[in-house]
Amino acid sequence: MTAPTRGRSIVAPLGVAAAAIGVAVLLHVRDPRTSTYLPCPFHALTGLWCPGCGTTRALGDLTRGDVAAAASSNVVAVMCVVVAVGLWGLWLRARWMQIPLTLPGPTRLAAAVVLALLAVFTVVRNTPWGTAIAPT
Q1: What is the DSSP letter of 132?
Q2: CA 125, CA 113: separation in Å to the nearest integer?
């Protein structure tokens, strides 16, 4: 069996990029602030903002280059986009150089910290002093 060529080895990362670009175009053309997308079931049932509320608006704002508005809608989503783009770049580089992608594995401590931060984020954005990080 022959080794894959560089071009063939980057098909998967480029496919993910194409899907992400397709979603970005959709969010740019159909602005989440004025178009109807699926509502958050948690917010519909409770009236509270979940950690994901505002993500669609944040992503739509990012397609317009408005980072401040995106962070105002959901700062966690903006940080996740930055991390995802960085990981995608590492994945593409590893595939292009035909080396394995080695990342540190998740630990229980890291998972606990992330869950605790999301819980704090959720509580704060639902309080009067957290209106700056509630979806706009």
Answers
A1: G
A2: 18
What is the value of pTM for the model shown?
0.87
Which amino acid would we find at residue 54? G
The token duo for 9 is 């080895």
Q: In angstroms, how far apart are the furthest CA atoms of the chain?
A: 63
Tens digit of each residue's pLDDT (9 = 90 or more) over 74-110? 999 999 999 999 999 999 999 999 999 999 988 999 9
Query: How far, CA to CA in Å, does 56 sit from each of 61, 67, 88?
Result: 9, 13, 20
Asked whether 100 and 113 are in contact (CB, 8 A), the reply is no
List alpha helices for the chain, DSSP H: 6-9, 11-29, 41-46, 55-63, 67-97, 108-125
CB distance 116 to 124 below 8 Å: no
Average pLDDT of the residues of the chain: 92
